[in-house]
Amino acid sequence: MKKQRQQSIKALIEQKKIDTQEKLKDELESMGFSVTQATVSRDINEMGLVKALCPDGGYRYSIGAKTSLSPIDELHNLMHTLAAGVDYAGNTVVIRCHTGMAQAVCAKLDAASFAQVVGTLAGDDTIFVLMRSQEDAAELSAVLAEDIIERHG
């Protein structure tokens, strides 16, 4: 069932502009699949789907390029293209992303498995990263800010 569902997901995102998990869930249900949001989220992650910019300025799910980059390098690539700013207060880092991109950046941040990160929380365009100390927050903030500065510099 999983293989059929993921094949259907691939066909759907190639044929239609699907920009949210909810739309993907609705499309799958209209095809007869009984899925939860958590199942759709897992499929997106397992298939390596990413949100790609469309010519009309919107976003849609597409198949991500297979890469042999480390999770940290993937994070730096996403920060370079999708993040708009980073700052910290106390032991919390705040990453501002382009609309709809925070969850993709946050997933790569989680995959990077920084020992100093206690946990993350992503919204639509903002990520909160709880660090073990203020020093850890300052260090992560500085490292991630370099990716944004490179793009604008």
Give the oligomeric state of the chains in this entry, treating copies of one chain as homo and distinct chains as hetero. single chain
| Domains (count) | 2
Global Rg: 17 Å
Q: Say how many strands there are.
A: 6
CATH topology of the largest domain: Gyrase A, domain 2
Using the alpha-carbon principal axes, give the shape: elongated
Tally of helical segments: 6
> How are the strands of the biggest sheet laid out side by side?
3-4-6-5
Q: How widely separated are the two ends?
A: 49 Å
pLDDT averaged residue by residue: 88
Going by helix content, strand content and strand pairing, the class is alpha+beta
H-E order: HHHEEHEEHEEH
User: Which CATH architecture of the largest domain would you pick?
Assistant: 2-Layer Sandwich
Helix content: 40-55%
Give start-end ranges of low-pLDDT stretches.
none
Question: In CATH, what is the class of the largest domain?
Answer: Alpha Beta
Largest sheet: 4 strands, antiparallel
Beta-strand percentage range: 15-25%
